[in-house]
Amino acid sequence: MVVELARLDPDASKEQVLHHLAIDGGVIIKQMLDADTIEKFKTDVAGQVESQEPGAKTGGDRTVEFWGHQTKRFTRLGWRSPTFEQILLQQMMIDVCDHVLLPSCDDYWMNTGQMMIIGPGESDQMWHRDAGNWMTLCTPTSPEVTVSCMYALGDFTADNGATRVVPGSHLWGDYQQAPAQDQTAIAEMESGDGMIYSGRVIHYGGANTTTDWRLGLHVSFVLGWLTPEEALPLSTPWESAETMSERAQRLLGWRSYGVRSRLWTVDYEDIPVAFDRN
Questions:
Q1: pTM score, two decimals?
Q2: pLDDT tens per residue, range 212-231
Q3: What is the CATH number of the domain that holds 168?
């Protein structure tokens, strides 16, 4: 029996997406990004895609292994691409995050916007749950702390490194349990498709046995009272963020956090006010 994730049409409702996300921990939505947005974004980052060296430059052995020896990764997408704001604010992803994350926080922010480009000869990545970044909040009874979307900027196939997902693993009672091969779905996607997935579902990048590079874009969001993977205001300086919408600025760390609490402030003011940048 082949294990698969549900695939929904572009006009699928939020309720349909949330239904499959709750059951399987991940769902593929066709054409989340249109061809024009993809081409503009790819043009914006083409130089970095070409010049970026594969593999991690810093970190311990586990980081180097997790990163992949033939995988290119880079962030700072709000700075590198004027088009990235459109992707950051993709409506279905925002709607899902509002529903899943807001019960546990006043607001959320971007965890990371990261290019993940799997090269020829790369092996399977180690399996993991993204919520593991926050350790004690990665348990069968933890609230959802992060939600991600993997966008295909070119076709994802079984041979070129399509993401592997273990449907239902976010509901397992034992998070130390290793997945079996016959429990794993291959998230094959066409360019423009997106896979929204829980921070508690097991997944990993697949091996690339082709001669082509698999071009993927990972965008994830995290509860606003947790530290994200990406150092947001350093990655997207104010000079890049100042023309963005207030919502985008907030997601990129350029607005203060909290209604019941008051966090991430300067002189106890909202950041743009404190710097007279409003």
A1: 0.96
A2: 999 999 999 999 999 999 99
A3: 2.60.120.620
